[in-house]
User: Fold these one by one.
Assistant:
Number 1:
Amino acid sequence: MPKFGNLVSLHEAKNWSRNMSTVTIKMLARELNLAISTVSRALMDSYEISPETKQKVTALAKQLNYQPNHYASSLRKQRSKTIAVIIPEISNNFFSHVINGIEAIAQEKNYHVLIYFTHENQQKEAEVIQHLLGGRVDGILMSLAGTTSSTMHLQPIMEQGLPIVFFDRISDTLNAPTVTTDDFESARHATRHLMDVGCRKIAYLSISPNLSIDCKRMHGFNQALQDKPGMAHSMMIPCSTDTNQNFERICQVLREEQPDGIFASVEKLAITSYHACAAVGLSIPKDVKILSFSNLETASLLNPSLTTIIQPAFDMGKSAATVLFHMLEKRKGRQWEQNTVIKSNMIIRNSTQIAV
Amino acid sequence: MPKFGNLVSLHEAKNWSRNMSTVTIKMLARELNLAISTVSRALMDSYEISPETKQKVTALAKQLNYQPNHYASSLRKQRSKTIAVIIPEISNNFFSHVINGIEAIAQEKNYHVLIYFTHENQQKEAEVIQHLLGGRVDGILMSLAGTTSSTMHLQPIMEQGLPIVFFDRISDTLNAPTVTTDDFESARHATRHLMDVGCRKIAYLSISPNLSIDCKRMHGFNQALQDKPGMAHSMMIPCSTDTNQNFERICQVLREEQPDGIFASVEKLAITSYHACAAVGLSIPKDVKILSFSNLETASLLNPSLTTIIQPAFDMGKSAATVLFHMLEKRKGRQWEQNTVIKSNMIIRNSTQIAV
DNA sequence: CTGTTAGCGCGTTCAT
DNA sequence: ATGAACGCGCTAACAG
């Protein structure tokens, strides 16, 4: 597939002294007849270096386009100014926005971001964690994989004292800061809304019973039904990460059970439902009303077909990162704050603009 | 906003010898009465270490949960098994998929991925590049910022010989491998389609004349109009990265110029157009037909309102990464292949299923 | 104010 | 088959 040419451009040596090897403080020191440490301190603008020397050093550094070696510095200082973000997948629009939020804060703090996808696979999740244990990052931001039931593989992190913040898909058995939205309350609220607009037979599409968000949303869903007993029937439809399979399953349910409402636990299932309705020949929202958590962009496209609970994904990313940096900065020895829980405000949005 | 508790769990020392400090080969060596170098070699499965010693070393390493220090090893080996991805923004759905593709290949090659957003800002772009010059990554995958007109800030990379591959938003003045889709041909083809279904006055929404994709698409657009002279009028509407501003601009155009077709250079502008039509009271595709490059997911939601050219974003990510790794592996000294151009096949999709 | 020294943790020479 | 020693590039303690 790739087609290679072989034009190798031969640039002339321009600004550097000898060959094109990368320039180090050692070279600067030699060039200026200074000690290595002096150059180092000059570059970090230490108070104990004379203005003239600083001037000379920074001038030469700029001229030679000196760039500090991040690996050497991280090794020496034992901190890397780098955090890791571990998420199930990014094709899910929700996580795109979260990452955006995280990166915004990281950029502000001059931190770097390593990104890892688990593809909803616990095995992969464990591998990534294992690698990160080697001191590669100062902290971790994480959202659990859908198949993750046990949290054994996270124990080393807790024991080693590596700062970690969970967001969205959290673990209740782990004693670590978490950032989530109020899934229970907004699911309850939105389900009530579905009933208010006439739904009497609602199908709940579950993505995975191992996911905290799924459980809480289902819980809120059930609570809403119990709040008004006898008002509506419910059905639990177990789905998976296999979209094609979900599609078939949903079509089948639509035909055989004929629900007039669908509560999709995650956005992807809502979109699949959207297509399933079209395939079966049902019109939205006339025949079937679909409810889901989703982001603003997708919601705007689907509106008014869907009752959408908009997740403040960008803000959640920012919040999670903020908590993590708080831990990093306050860290003394091996202790830091735990049990931080931020419940972001929910924005609920649909054709009739309900608010929570 | 954050609410902190202070439960600090005190875990007992379990498997390690002394305190909970991270375990190094030095400790393993001391524990086993071996030289550091022996342990090092045993862990990398060197042929000159006896099976018994290897056995003992790996056993203890596993027991103490030893993890090599990535920074030390990178410093020593002068390569980091890490690549950087520099993109304008990720909220743009297109880049989400690209990253997914990149990460898939990186994971396969056991590489790590640092991610940087330029937020369409050339200044930021330059800063990131500058940092990366310090030997932090083995290679770079990059898509240029919309405001980037000059490529001066990329010169040091070329001079230093840091492997880099551009994708999607490339620079024509830079002598580096690129991966793009065939923007000219597919834009031409799709525009022809617009005319075939009856459009006679088409507005082209330009995102930035500095962007290669914008130019090529506009070029293809114009070519299609020239192919059938007198068939349709065209209008050039300059847009920006400010969505609100774009919205107003498009509404104004819709009212005053009343085009019956819109060619949006990027997905975001298509969505904005979609909303603008709704605001002005025009129905899609009856009154106005919108054409755009977009990803499958968004396209599926907007179908059949939009004539969509689906970009193989995931594949583009994979291709770009593949080319980069090719460079990394073949690298000897400071030379490698240049001018690699992969033109991914385009998939064109809309209500009437046209193919290119 | 500046220089000397001593590592950070790992891989690689050179000896044995 | 194993050990001793050195250095990747940088920071920090300790002199002077």
Note: DSSP finds 13 helices and twelve strands in chain B.
Number 2:
Amino acid sequence: MTIATTRPETILGDTAVAINPDDERYKHLAGKQVIVPMVNRVVPIIQDAYVEVEFGTGCLKVTPAHDMNDYEIGQRHKLETIDVFNDDGTMGEAAGFYLGEDRFAVRKKIVKELEAKGHIVKIEDYRNKVGRSERTNAIVEPRLTKQWFLDMKDLAATALKAVDSGEVTFYPKHFWNMYYNWLNEDNVRDWCISRQLWWGQRIPAWYYGEEVFVAETEAAALKMAREKTGKDLALTDLKQEEDVVDTWFSSWLWPISVFDGFETQEELKYYYPTSVLVTGWDIMFFWVARMIMTGYEYGGELLGEDLAKAKGIQPFNDVYFTGMVRDEKRRKMSKSLGNSPDALTLIENYGADGVRFGMMSSGAAGNDIIFDAPIDKETKAVLNESQLCAQGMKFCNKLWNALNMLKGKEVADKPASEENKMAMQWLEYRLSQTVEEVEDHFKTYRLSDALSALYRFIWNDFCSWYLELIKPASGEPMDKETYDRTIDYFGEMMIMLHPFMPFITEELWHNMKERADGEDCVISQYPKIKAYDNTMLQNMEHVREMVTGVREIRNKNGLSPKEAMAVYVKKTDWSEALYTKSGYLGVAKKMGNLSDLQFTETDVDSTVSFVCGTEEYAVFLEQTIDVEAERKRITKDLEHQKGFVNSIKKKLSNERFVNNAPAAVVDKEKQKLLDGEARIKILQDALNNLN
RNA sequence: GAGGCUGUAGCUCAGUUGGUUUAGAGCGCUUGCUUGACAGGCAAGAGGUCAUGGGUUCGAAUCCCUUCAGCCUCACCA
């Protein structure tokens, strides 16, 4: 029989030849025996499904001592195991030949010997992967040795139950799948805790010949050995295991040992279980699962019955898995690859808060972080640049300038205008809404969402809308009430932003007003969620949309924002209520730079119209209107609205929808239809008016 | 080989129990704005057959399956 091998020296340890049970070529040889060359050992021909018919010659030499799969085959077929090597990789006594010679040298010698005896059929170049030591790059090949294992069956079941029952919660929760897949009883493997290293904690097992004694101390082991053997043994008669335990074997004690909990339980009783573990999902099994196992193993005993019952014995309540930071080629950033930017240089370029902003805003929960530091194509070096960090830096700049503007205003002792009162009320509501939103994101560890909600609120609502609204005309002072309240809002924003950007927020906090000693942003009371008026928020949103409409018409017609414009609004109950009773007129005029906002019941000449919600507006233009461009614009919008209305009509004419969907959903669709039809009517009118 | 995750705008990503006016943000891009906070800025705009093909449902970016692509973990190539 012809066999193929890349390690001829292991032939000396072969104890069988295996074939696939379905291989027609060799079927008739099953159960017979062959003679291994050189050692002239008679070994059986066995059938095993592991052997691939297509691979190699289809005949597999089986060396249980020097190949993991061969070992398993050996177990299945009760084969003899012959270890042909010494500890240092030279040939051992069991090999029978070349005693004490290095295995790589022997590999060549054996080929020659086989050739001389006429056993070689052919030699071909073959590329295969060779295992190497991470530390020394030495070639590592399997050899059967004694190792210590931890039985995982019960521990795995405990760890699974902890997460399944909700005593430990994963964020994001889809990591449960990976966790389950690894730990379920069909897949879990016993944990090999032996490590062949010269540092670490030596496994506390002592040998006396074939006997082994596991004990806390050497003395205890000796006592056990004496009792067992009945001999008057000395310490020198015992030999301690040379392997050390896997590093994770002590790391899994961390939730307890960090509080010195095995020695004294005072701190442990206070802190254990901790609220959240923040870590990467790549060490879910190495560390997270195993910490959970030890928590349940020792927690009850250490905490005492009452506390255990009250607080639980899980090491932590939540696990927040962060994403892996990767480079633009999606490789994990690591020291060995040298593909990470230099943090200190990044900080020099963008500021610490800028870098924090960049990291956190790109870290959506559980997903990988593709950090945008580009790689130089020529030198392959990572550039210490990042658009995300630049965004953070610009945000700092924005905050600084916003306060700068406020502080630069002269403050006068006069009452706040109606528009300012309205603006402040609105901002207060928007702030409360934002507190609520951010709180919600924190609860579910959506840190990037929390940050971006704050970013948008501060930049778009506070700076672009609110500050512009309360900003007095040039040369005019700001009233004291508006100034003071605005500083207070600013302070609240700094408190909320502080966890993300601690440096600038603390700085501005102290710059904005006199603070007493110890009155620092970092320890200030976080804003509480307060009720807010949704109608007011929606009304203001309508005004903002209207202003955008006016600005767009200015833009398209090449008109300066400084030029005040007359705007008409079709008189409806709603528009009248908004601009007179609710008093948004001043807000609209100031923000849109309107010379006037008049109600009208008919179409006005020389105007360009636009729709906002279901209200119709028209802007008066002194120049000739480009009728063709207007027709195009309105027609495009009209087509869109018609498509929209049609899709809803289709839905509503479907009896099964009307009968099966919840009433609220059907009502909403009906309202959408009405609104859509109202908009179509306005657009249609505007189009007719053009003609 | 086993298992898992992900495919949404040029890029990086949101879209939470299926129904918020036929999909959102930031960056980038286009256009217009230089002197009272900020050009590291302001305003507006363009840009998407939600990878593919099927299914479930009154209704799918969202749930299920197919295919394709990318990534990860574990094992391993005689």
Note: Chain A has a mean pLDDT of 89.
